[in-house]
Amino acid sequence: MNKFKYVTPLTRVDREALERLVKADASGARVRMRAHSILLSAAHFTIQEICDIYQVTRTTVSTCLDDWEE
């Protein structure tokens, strides 16, 4: 099992869309958290670091990153 997991590099369009979600999405905190987690992963924050920031489980972060990759 790979100790580190990161999303694939983001395109400029993807990064801008995620940044918009983080700043102003009306869907709620969960959408903003997921968008920010993807941006953090792209910046090579580990899953554990993202878990510590959001106080969620590894499964939550890992699932978010997997969903993005799909």
Give an overview of the whole structure:
This protein has 70 residues and is mainly alpha-helical. It has one domain (12-69). It is built from four helices and no strands. It has helices spanning 12-24, 29-42, 47-54, 58-69. Helix 1 (12-24) runs antiparallel to helix 2, helix 2 crosses helix 4 and helix 3 packs across helix 4.
Question: How would you summarize this macromolecular structure in one to three sentences?
Answer:
The chain has 70 residues and is mostly helical. It has helices at 12-24, 29-42, 47-54, 58-69.
List keywords for this structure.
globular; mainly alpha; 70 residues
Question: How are the elements arranged and paired?
Answer:
Blueprint: H1 12-24, H2 29-42, H3 47-54, H4 58-69
